[in-house]
Amino acid sequence: MACLVLAALLAAPAAGQTPVSRRFKETVLAPFPQAVRESAVISPDARRVAYVRKTAGGEAAVLDGNEQKTYSKVAELTFSPDGKTLAYAAKRGDQWLVVSSGQEQGPYARVGPPVFSPQGGRLAYVAMLPDETRVVVLDGKPGKPWEMIFEGRLVFSPDGSRLAYGARLTPAAGQTPQWFLVADDHTWGPYEFLGSLTGIHFSPDGKRLAWAALSGKKWHPVVDGKPQGSYDNLGELVFSADGRRIAYAAAEGGKWTAVVDGKPQGPFDAIGEDTLRFSPDGKRLAYAAQSGKSWCVVVDGKPGKKYDGIGQVKFSPDGRTLACSARQGPQALVVTGDREERLFDRIVAGSLVYSAGGRRLAYIARSGHNSLVVADGKRKPRYDRVGYLTFAPDGRRPVYAATRGKEAFTVVDDKEAAHRYESIWMPPGEPLKFTTRTRFHYLAVKSDNIYLVEEELD
Predict the structure, then answer these.
(1) Rounded Cα distance, 425 and 13, in Å
(2) 319: phi > 0 → left, psi -120 to 50 → alpha, else beta; which?
(3) Which of 340, 292, 337, 281 is nearest to 313 (CA)?
(4) pTM for the predicted model, two decimal places
(5) Separation CA 82–CA 44 (nearest Å)
(6) What is the pLDDT of residue 4?
(7) Three-class SS string for the chain?
(8) Residue 415, C-beta contacts closer than 8 angstroms, at least 6 positions apart
(9) Per-residue pLDDT band at 10 (split at 50, 70, 90)
(10) How far apart are CA 209 and CA 362, in angstroms?
(11) CB atoms within 10 A of CB 176
């Protein structure tokens, strides 16, 4: 759960802009007392809220203010990607169920978190049987029993037609545990282990599948069931958008390389976690790499300028521009192509955002006790906190939420909304949501209620 909370800071707040009375509509969703906020989840479309509330008989999920059935315990609230369905784990006596749209599945000795397919039409989870074996339950039907299911690694293909996971069989006495990769009705293995950092990845079209497997005390990237090499360690693995290209970070003899379509680039002392990026057209690859005490961004195999650290690496939607956040001594900056922007105390992780056409770039920076948006290299007004940054669909105006003192509000192109709240809530990592070219929405809290707020651009 992500919430733009209100914090009293030591420094005096910056002078505010003149608020504007944008057209807006409030719809109350649910009571939202402090006691339920730790368990609260927001739907991916930012239109619904669910949380766990204690009842006389135990606990109950509350969806948009409507209390569901009471169980002895409720956990793992999960919305489908389209926000239409809520699923969760529920305990009755010493048995566990998975409840989806009010319908119970089970019971089982234990259950894992529900996982929806990207379109939300399918549901999977891990369940433990009375003999302590595990099964993957897909669309309500238990699969083959295994000794262990790879924790947190139920992975649907982008179209939801395929499901992959790792599983372990009980070995014979004195033998090494045997792990397998399971997808659809096919099983690959056995392996000594599967890579948790590398994970399990479908290509964007869902036709290809890749993972990391340990065999003979060496790590092997496996693509479409075929081992691609042998390494001491493996890191991040990514497909290009068209699924034709694949890249991964690999270590051998204490050095790291980025292997692109089977060809190594490097060596380096390290490759930045979660920085391998193909351009949208799949023709270019970028990543952060360390040599000695310095870091640089490598683009198309060519190392760039050295810095003390590299954070987010991001291509523009048209693939023409690459931006990154970098650290230079105790301060941080954003680098776009060969252009360095001004220094700040910190660039907020993951905040780099391009406009839809890729012509404009904005991000969130920290300076002293204040936060501010920087768009096209120009500083915007300072606030206590800033979050949920995006551009309007026409690409002309940055739009975000901010707090000052005890108030939270939205800001469009430096203009603050006159209507104020105690806090603004969105799903983790998500910006304010546009539904049309001029209308956006979010959830907001005031007087122990949570509201769906829809605003119109000026």
Answers:
(1) 22
(2) left
(3) 337
(4) 0.91
(5) 7
(6) 58
(7) CEEECCCCCCCCCCCCCCCECCCEEEEEEEECCHHHHHHCEECCCCCCEEEEEEECCEEEEEECCEEEEEECEEEEEEECCCCCCEEEEEEECCEEEEEECCEEEEEECEECCCEECCCCCCEEEEEECCCCCEEEEECCEECCCECEECCCCCEECCCCCCEEEEEEECCCCCCCCEEEEEECCEEEEEECEECCCCCEEECCCCCCEEEEEEECCEEEEEECCEECCCECEEEEEEECCCCCCEEEEEEECCEEEEEECCEEEEEECEECCCCCEECCCCCCEEEEEEECCEEEEEECCEECCCECEEEEEEECCCCCCEEEEEEECCEEEEEECCEECCCECEECCCCCEECCCCCCEEEEEEECCEEEEEECCEEEEEECEEEEEEECCCCCCEEEEEEECCEEEEEECCEEECCCECEEEECCCCCCEECCCCEEEEEEEECCEEEEEEEECC
(8) 17, 18, 19, 20, 458
(9) very low
(10) 34
(11) 12
Of 167, 187, 186, 163, the closest CA to residue 178 belongs to 167
Q: What Å distances lie between residue 311 and 94, 247, 297, 308, 350, CA to CA? A: 46, 19, 10, 10, 8
At 148, which amino acid appears? Answer: M
In this structure, what are the phi and psi dihedrals at residue 345, rounded to the nearest 5 degrees? -65, -35
Q: What is the pLDDT of residue 359?
A: 92
Residue 114 CA: distances (Å) to CA of 79, 120, 181: 9, 11, 20
Whose CA is closest to 368, among 387, 340, 344, 351?
A: 344
**Residue 283 CB coordination number (10 Å):** 11
Q: What tokens were used for 370?
A: 């204040």
The one-letter amino acid at 41: V
Q: Are strands 378-383 and 115-116 parallel, antiparallel or unpaired?
A: unpaired
Looking only at the bridges linking them, the beta strands covering 246-252 and 193-194 are unpaired
| Tens-place pLDDT, residues 38-79 | 999 999 999 999 999 999 999 999 999 999 999 999 999 999
Q: Shortest CA distance to 134 belongs to which of 149, 112, 155, 153?
A: 149
Query: Which residues contact residue 56 at a Cβ distance below 8 angstroms, ignoring those fewer than 6 apart?
Result: 70
The dihedral over CA atoms of 96, 100, 102, 104, expressed in degrees to the nearest 10, equals: -40
At 414, list the tokens.
Answer: 């430096």
